[in-house]
Amino acid sequence: LEQSFRSAAASLPFRASGDDVFFHTVRVSNGRYRLVAIDPGWLDPSERNIEIHTQLTGAFRYRDLITGQTLRASAAGQLALTVPAGAFRIIEAETQGGGQDAQRRN
What we know:
Blueprint: H1 2-9, E1 14-18, E2 22-29, E3 32-38, E4 48-54, E5 60-64, E6 70-71, E7 79-83, E8 88-95
Antiparallel strand pairs: 1-4, 2-3, 3-8, 4-7, 5-6, 5-8
């Protein structure tokens, strides 16, 4: 069962690692994705530190849709985020290729 989850996760466009969060990705249009990270601590809310990894080729621009803040990814393309206790983050990821859809990495 665990191996089937790992195999399925490899085909996702984005993945989160670090502290436990609910993480969801929606493809909004070609080259544009909405990433949602939610603190799952209903009974024990806690600040969650995560890193978002893209599993697509190409460079992405990231923007926090609640604050409007532009977010910077590392040179490796990973985005470090903090999800506030009892809250969520909504991030827009857009290819820097002007709306062209990115391809999955092999």
